[in-house]
């Protein structure tokens, strides 16, 4: 593509590429979406007061020091940090996550190299190898998969580059192959959603769960926590319906439509992400229900869902915090100074309900 | 009725299979209706039938186009991507008003249909490969245009998705209208005849002097336009444009509806009423399992059983 000599038989590919680019360009050039006039969109990631904190460590939890890991001390300021994102920044979580890393790097005056694997694991492996080759002294990785990291870990170990993984874990030895793992506790999110559900429904009646995608650890853990807490604190609250909405709004809407047809007496719906919860809201609206007839509790904390609380359709949102930047850099800073850092760090997730939704909506991503 | 026919007929396997091929899908729908009326609480209500019909409408519309393509012995895997593209384009151009946005959507869909048709008719690429390319590329383009879900508040679009005329939601009326139109085209027009002739034997159609390439391109454009209609309607119903997940696996639902409805994959025959019934059958099956809170994996297994039965019946026909 770089060459400028146009031989006839080479024309095919550039023409196709140019055509595709032209389609994309002309399509967006004169586009006019609804929001163009009143651009109310803001990136909530830099919102004040949305700093990320770690949950207090339990005594006796494992820590890691730079000597045990075998790296060398350095000053984070002036160091080069490589960040490898797993998925395209096409959903609020990933957008906020990447933005948070970038913001924190800027704040601390760290040189940041970024790469995005676009949901392809092989690309993520080469991404990280590239980051190492470009001279990253430290790595922050949001892994796409848990397995298959050996080639990268070996390359990083050879260069003695410390690695912090965020939001998903790498199946490897902590403090040997990587330093720390920072993430939300999904089981705890389920428990807190159950608490909100018990409060909203008064602990009695029938509730439904809109499950996430099948075979996903987020789904199993958010379900486990919810059911545990309901069984323990409100035995009168019965889970009578559990169907997957695949983490998608349309599927959440369709399943909820079936649900309210066959079980008109349902009191609450626990949606394992905001999108399915918003689908449930659409279904309830379509069925002529009023805001608050069915209590909806969701997990994630996107702006749309928190707006749903303000509008009265959603009763509570448990946050799954995507702002890993401050905590990731704090961990790297402590570690590179030679102090001990925990091997597993759990982020503190916020929560939204009718009391704080209005003033805290700026914190939502 | 099913049992009566089975008992009176002597053990004539071919006739049973033929009966199943033609009427099996209707018997299936009837059976599911009866079972649900008996075992599912609150099933027999206007609200419920409305819900099922509204949910199945986009699948029916996509399946109509798919039936046409399958009638030419092709297949169109890009329908889900076209739905996503329609959703993106709707969100992108809604600022001009609903009608201009719909025109742009139609342009995009026609573009995909033209590309599919040209690859099949002129370049001679196998339909499954040609449309696979557009399936991947189409969704990619949809995501380039609109990388993430966007809420839409256009009142005209909202009423298209949830409004009704004389108690019938627009979605159902549009699906019914399109089904009648496509059935008419297949049965009563030259274009329909040519389409089936090509499906029967493309070389023969070419020798007979039919405009094979033109018909093929038109068929793929029609299929893409129908998918775009479904995409716009689904978007209108959701009041949000979600190109990441809208239309996912829709190609499989549509092919299932067509095959279960008795249209052979070998082309040359199109059964529109059966296609509609096939989509309804799958919808009722899914609804039954969801309403009784059975694990989602059961839905997939049940669908697989229905498909195997349909293909078995079709095999009998192919042998004759």
From TrEMBL, chain A:
Pfam (any one): Peripla_BP_4
Entry-linked SUPFAM superfamilies: Periplasmic binding protein-like I (SSF53822)
Protein localization: Cell envelope
Membrane-crossing residue ranges in chain numbering: none
Region (Disordered): 32-61
Residue ranges occupied by any Periplasmic binding protein domain in the UniProt entry: 89-335
UniProtKB keywords: Signal
Signal peptide: 1-29
GO cellular component: cell envelope
Record InterPro entries: Peripla_BP_I, SBP_2_dom
GO molecular function: carbohydrate binding
PANTHER family to which the protein is assigned, alphabetical: D-ALLOSE-BINDING PERIPLASMIC PROTEIN-RELATED, GALACTOFURANOSE-BINDING PROTEIN YTFQ
Family to which this protein belongs: Belongs to the bacterial solute-binding protein 2 family.
Protein name: ABC transporter substrate-binding protein
Organism expressing this protein natively: Streptomyces parvulus
TrEMBL record, chain B:
Membrane-related topology note: Multi-pass membrane protein
Name of this protein: ATPase
Keyword field contains Repressor: no
Species annotation: Streptomyces parvulus
InterPro entries given in the database record: ABC_transp_permease
GO cellular component, one term: plasma membrane
Record keywords: Cell membrane, Membrane, Transmembrane, Transmembrane helix
Subcellular location: Cell membrane
Keyword hit for Membrane: yes
Annotated Pfam families: BPD_transp_2 (PF02653)
PANTHER family: ABC TRANSPORTER PERMEASE PROTEIN YPHD-RELATED-RELATED (PTHR32196), GALACTOFURANOSE TRANSPORTER PERMEASE PROTEIN YTFT (PTHR32196:SF19)
GO molecular function: transmembrane transporter activity
């Amino acid at each position: 593509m770089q060459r400028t000599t146009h031989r006839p038989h080479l024309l095919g590919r550039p023409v196709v590429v140019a055509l595709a680019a032209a389609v994309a360009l002309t399509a967006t050039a004169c586009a006019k979406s609804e929001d163009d006039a009143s651009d109310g969109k803001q990136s909530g990631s830099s919102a004040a007061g949305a700093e990320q904190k770690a949950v207090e460590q339990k005594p006796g939890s494992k820590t890691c020091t730079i000597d045990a890991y075998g790296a060398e001390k350095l000053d984070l300021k002036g160091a080069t940090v490589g960040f490898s994102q797993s998925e395209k920044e096409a959903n609020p979580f990933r957008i906020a996550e990447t933005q948070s890393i970038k913001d924190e790097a800027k704040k601390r005056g760290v040189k940041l190299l970024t790469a995005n694997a676009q949901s392809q694991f092989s690309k993520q492996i080469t991404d990280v190898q590239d980051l190492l080759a470009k001279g990253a002294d430290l790595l922050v990785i949001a892994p796409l998969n848990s397995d298959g990291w050996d080639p990268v870990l070996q390359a990083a170990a050879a260069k003695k580059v410390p690695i912090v993984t965020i939001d998903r874990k790498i199946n490897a030895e902590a403090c040997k192959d990587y330093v720390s793992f920072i993430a939300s506790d999904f089981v705890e999110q389920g428990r807190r959603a159950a608490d909100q559900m018990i409060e909203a429904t008064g602990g009695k009646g029938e509730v439904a769960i809109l499950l996430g995608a099948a075979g996903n650890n987020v789904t199993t853990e958010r379900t486990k926590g919810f059911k545990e807490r309901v069984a323990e604190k409100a035995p009168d609250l019965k889970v009578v319906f559990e169907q997957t909405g695949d983490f998608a709004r349309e599927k959440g809407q369709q399943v909820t439509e079936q649900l309210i047809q066959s079980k008109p007496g349902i009191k609450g719906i626990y949606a394992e992400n905001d999108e399915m919860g918003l689908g449930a809201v659409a279904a309830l609206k379509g069925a002529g229900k009023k805001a608050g007839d069915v209590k909806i509790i969701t997990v994630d904390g996107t702006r749309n869902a928190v707006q749903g609380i303000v509008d009265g359709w959603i009763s509570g949102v448990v946050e799954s915090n995507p702002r890993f930047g401050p905590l990731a850099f704090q961990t790297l800073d402590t570690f590179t100074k030679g102090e001990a850092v925990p091997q597993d760090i759990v982020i503190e997730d916020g929560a939204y309900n009718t009391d704080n939704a209005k003033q805290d909506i700026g914190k939502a991503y | 009725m099913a049992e009566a026919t089975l008992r009176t007929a002597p053990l004539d396997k071919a006739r049973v299979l033929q009966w199943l091929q033609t009427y099996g899908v209707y018997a299936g729908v009837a059976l599911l209706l009866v079972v649900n009326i008996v075992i599912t609480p609150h099933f027999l209500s206007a609200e419920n039938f409305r819900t099922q019909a509204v949910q199945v409408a986009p699948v029916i519309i996509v399946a109509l186009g798919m039936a046409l393509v399958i009638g030419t012995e092709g297949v169109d895997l890009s329908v889900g991507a076209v739905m996503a593209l329609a959703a993106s384009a709707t969100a992108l151009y809604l600022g001009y008003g609903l009608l201009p946005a719909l025109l742009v959507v139609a342009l995009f869909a026609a573009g995909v249909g033209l590309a599919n048709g040209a690859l099949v008719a002129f370049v001679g690429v196998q339909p499954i490969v040609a449309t696979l390319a557009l399936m991947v590329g189409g969704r990619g383009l949809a995501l380039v245009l609109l990388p993430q879900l966007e809420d839409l508040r256009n009142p005209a679009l909202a009423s298209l998705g949830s409004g009704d005329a004389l108690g019938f939601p627009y979605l159902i009326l549009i699906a019914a209208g399109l089904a009648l139109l496509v059935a008419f085209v297949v049965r009563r027009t030259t274009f329909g005849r040519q389409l089936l002739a090509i499906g029967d034997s493309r070389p023969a159609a070419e020798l007979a002097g039919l405009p094979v390439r033109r018909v093929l391109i038109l068929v793929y454009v029609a299929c893409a336009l129908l998918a775009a209609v479904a995409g716009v309607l689904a978007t209108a119903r959701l009041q949000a444009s979600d190109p990441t997940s809208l239309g996912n696996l829709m190609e499989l639902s549509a092919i299932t509806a067509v095959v279960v409805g008795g249209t052979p994959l070998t082309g040359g025959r199109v059964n529109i009423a059966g296609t509609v019934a096939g989509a309804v059958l799958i919808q009722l099956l899914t609804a039954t399992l969801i309403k009784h809170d059975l694990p989602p994996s059961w839905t997939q297994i049940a669908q697989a059983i229905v498909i195997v039965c349909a293909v078995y019946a079709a095999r009998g026909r192919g042998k004759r």
